[in-house]
């Protein structure tokens, strides 16, 4: 387990506003792009946290406004948490410091969350017939 990641195991320690800085390295296109913005984590119940990203994607062809919504939901069966898509489909277990895999045929997403409740990172490697990129998101607590 990556140092400090155990303290992320309970995502309620992350509630609040975060500065989001994301780097996307698209190996197929040979391009690097950046996303800058904010992440808000808000408890809507003791077992459900709203994950809301908003920002701007700075691409070689120009900037685009972006948003993404997810859920962190306590899974009573496993005593852990799951990340779910906005429509409530399972994405992956919340296991800071451990690798997770999300098969999205024909592509595969391999990720890891690590850091501390003051600064953490979400990293993804995405491969498939039409995808080959890495995405690294650094989150720092907004003061």
Strand order of the largest sheet: 6-5-4-3-2-1-10-9-8-7
The shape, in one word, is globular
Report the average pLDDT across residues.
Answer: 93
Q: How many angstroms does the end-to-end distance come to?
A: 28 Å
Q: What share of residues are in beta strands?
A: over 45%
- Give the count of helical stretches: 0
User: Order of helices and strands, N to C?
Assistant: EEEEEEEEEE
* Main β sheet profile: 10 strands, antiparallel
Q: Give the fraction of residues assigned to helices.
A: under 10%
List keywords for this structure.
10 strands; mainly beta; ten-stranded antiparallel sheet; single chain; globular; 143 residues
How is this structure best summarized?
The chain has 143 residues and is mainly β. It has no helices and 10 strands. The relative contact order is 0.23.
């Amino acid at each position: 387990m990556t140092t400090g990641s155990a303290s992320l195991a309970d995502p309620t320690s992350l509630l609040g506003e975060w500065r989001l800085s994301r780097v996307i390295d698209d190996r197929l296109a040979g391009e690097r792009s950046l996303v800058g913005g904010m992440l808000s984590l808000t408890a809507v119940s003791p077992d459900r946290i709203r994950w809301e990203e908003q920002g701007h994607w700075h691409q070689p062809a120009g900037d685009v406004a972006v948003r993404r919504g997810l859920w962190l939901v306590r899974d009573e069966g496993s005593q852990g948490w799951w990340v779910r898509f906005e429509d409530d489909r399972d994405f992956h277990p919340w296991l800071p410091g451990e690798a997770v895999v999300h098969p999205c045929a024909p592509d595969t997403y391999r990720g890891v969350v690590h850091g501390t409740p003051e600064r953490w990172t979400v990293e993804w490697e995405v491969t498939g017939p039409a995808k080959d990129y890495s995405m690294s998101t650094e989150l720092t607590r907004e003061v």
